[in-house]
Amino acid sequence: MVLLLLTLFLTVFSALSVSSTQTIVQGFPTLTPQTSLSVEKETDFLISPNRTFSSGFYKVGTNAFCFSIWFANSLNKTVVWMANRDRPVNGKQSRLTLQKSGNLVLTDAGGSVMWATNTFSQGQVEVQLLDTGNLVLVTNNGNVIWQSFDYPTDTLLPTQSLVRNTTLVSMRGRGTYLSGYYNLKFDDNNILNLIYNGPMVSSIYWPSTVQETVFYFGRTPYNSSRVAFFNERGSFRSSDDLEFNASNFGVGPKRRLTLDYDGILRLYSLDGATGLWEVTWQPGGVDACRVHGLCGPYGFCRYNPLPTCSCPYGFYRIDPSDWSKGCSPRFKLTCNSTTTNQLDFVMIPNTGYYGYDLDTYGLGLSFESCRNACLIDCRCQGFVYSLLGKGQCFPKRTLLSGFQILDLSRVAHVKVPRDIAISQKGKVLNTSSDLNCSAAEVMVSSGGGSGISGGGEDTKRNGYMKLLISFVGSVAIIEMVCIGLGWWFVLRKHVREELVNMGYIVLALGFKRFTYTELKRATLNFKQEIGKGGFGTVYRGILDNQRVVAVKRLEGILQGDAEFWAEVSIIGKLNHRNLVKMWGFCAEGKHKLLVYEYMENGSLDKLLFTDSPSSALDWEHRYNIALGTAKGLSYIHEECLEWVLHCDVKPQNILLDDNLEPKVTDFGMSKLFRESLDTGFSRVRGTRGYLAPEWMKNVTIDAKADVYSYGIVLLELLTGKRASSFHWQVGEENEYNRLVQFVRQKIKQDMLVEVIDPRLNHACSDGKLETLVKVALMCVGEDRDTRPAMSKVVELLSGDDENIDDQEGDN
């Protein structure tokens, strides 16, 4: 019995072990005349000599297959070419055959030709899949009579050229391999363009056509060769002078340049260790919501924080599976002289619709004039009005390529029946759905799992109880072994999927996961320190592609890699012009690092508190810094999907770009230190002199703590003095408000002139000076309920004096 059990155990374990390992890759090196590949045989495929690429039948739907080329070593098959993407073949009896005449033919179950190379050769021909991913028909003397590189689908591989008569065409949608609506091609002016080529309209969205000429983008039409390609090092060159390099430039990883279904061109590099793809370049100025036609007629794209399509109020999504079909009204709009007074508009803030302006477009028009002109014009589907003070009116005959961006100073108005407009009551969105236009969703999908089941069999009673017990016992042992092994494989699969999902986070955010070795090399072993705070030390670094970065080495992080990645994903989704952009991260055991864009002008304190009067910030720059910082904080407090507190607002965490535009850094750090706002922070986070009084009262911390710290920064901008330079006595009831007391006392004595930084030489706008003083004192109120929200601060600093008076009255 023991021998039987041991034999059974070894048999089961051997079978499971074999099933758990990857099937040995077989495949054929070539396809010779009058031989074929069958869709029904999984082993019927070609493989390149170095086993990087495979070519065979790829399942694209229920009982639907396309003859394809894919990367053999990616986590899931990543297709780079399809022969019959728009004419899939049946899952039974379909074949790819190399005829004796030299023609490569794909036939369906009924023998119908679905695709062919239409080649002919008198000599012997064979099909080869090269190490470059190029499928070729080559004669016995080495002449190539056909190659897949001449007929790209949505992907370009290293050394493959895009020329005058070739085009990259995106997939139709996620998991839908039909030809989509986005093209990469040379236009008649010899410029490489990204084009929306929809069912009804066509338009170029990259390079932007808003600029006067392509020369603005460094392109030139003065070359009629029309050729573009990239090499194995990740260097792309085009005849119109478009040039770029992969962020991990150099020989090593496998690469592909793919026009994804969301209309964005991305250069990917393969991580050989995980099999995951990493985005290493995508065009500047083409964020997802700027892609034309993405959300169809009437639809508009917004960030939530990932790109999301929505319909205006009163409209519904036409096709739940395809946003490109857009939205349709829930009403029938009639327009004539008798129904005009029955029409109105629903408003969509911070939103524009690209192109299709009517001839009634104008400058210097009041809002009412613009509205009335669209109301009585039956051609007008709606209008967009600019809030920049120039009276720009954009009446639209078609509402397409809509986009909503929080700092866009435009409001869209869509024509609807009046009862719809009345019922809107402040509502904006009717339906929305994430586009999932990330690299992870575009090209990576989780693999399916397999279960392991154990079974038993009934036995007949034969009177031999001892034998029965022995048999049942042996079966139970075998079942326990099977169940144990089954759980082991399930858990292993779960861990594997968790790692894959963490890879999705990286790809979805479009930033790089660095190794500790890379960052150690970039920072010269962390030698050049450029800043230090409560969350860690910041170092200057230069990546292998010569990009200068700021590397924050976090201290005190207790989270594991998975939890850290999840929190970083939230921080990485925060995207605003007044927030420092995160470019990547590192998570290797105890090493937790964040990689940010580098600011040459450094932090605000270095220019604000300089000893050199000539280097000090002037008044306009100070006011703009105050306003920009408020916008960044308002975004993380109220506008992004996951609200975040900063907890350490101070000049050292306000960086300045080349134009002295402020960018807040260190936001979201509290999320990485396991601290909860529901139960209060485990310890005080922040810097002495900027802490709100509630930090010392053991109460729940909310956004008003950041407002207080921001108010202190405003007082520093006004006085030019550090909050820490005001000495307080130990034991004071509130030792953090000495700067506040100084300013209030001087203002009470009508001695505001003694508050203002003398280096400004009284060169202050009286209106803005009064506004900044009032806002600063509101923000540093002892009672946090009297402090304004950061969105209110933005509104006040933007110039509404009446609101300031109202706010002061409320306080």
**CATH-level-2 architecture of the largest domain:** Orthogonal Bundle
What does the radius of gyration come to?
32 Å
Query: Could you state the oligomeric state of the chains shown?
Result: single chain
Low-confidence stretches: 1-25, 434-468, 487-509, 673-684, 728-735
Describe the structure concisely for a colleague:
By secondary structure, the chain is α+β, with helices and mostly antiparallel strands. The chain has 14 helices and 44 strands.
Name its key features.
Receptor protein kinase ZmPK1; alpha+beta; kinase; 5-stranded antiparallel sheet; 26% strand; 5 domains; disordered N terminus; single chain; transferase; 811 residues; Agglutinin, subunit A; receptor
Give a written overview of the molecule.
The chain has 811 residues and is of the alpha+beta class. It folds into five domains: 30-151, Agglutinin, subunit A, CATH 2.90.10; 162-289, Agglutinin, subunit A; 295-434, Hepatocyte Growth Factor (3-Layer(bba) Sandwich); 512-597, Phosphorylase Kinase, domain 1 (2-Layer Sandwich), CATH 3.30.200; 604-810, Orthogonal Bundle (Transferase(Phosphotransferase), domain 1), CATH 1.10.510.10. The protein has 14 helices and 44 strands. A six-stranded mixed β-sheet has the order 37-41-42-40-39-38, with helices on both faces. Strands 3, 4, 5, 6 and 7 form a five-stranded antiparallel β-sheet that branches. Strands 31-34-26-27-36 form a five-stranded mixed β-sheet, with no helix packed on it. α12 packs parallel to α14 (801-810). The longest helix has 45 residues, at 465-509. It is globular and about 105 Å long. Residues 1-25, 434-468, 487-509, 673-684 and 728-735 have low confidence and may be disordered. It comes from Camellia lanceoleosa. Keywords: Kinase, Receptor, Transferase. This is Receptor protein kinase ZmPK1.
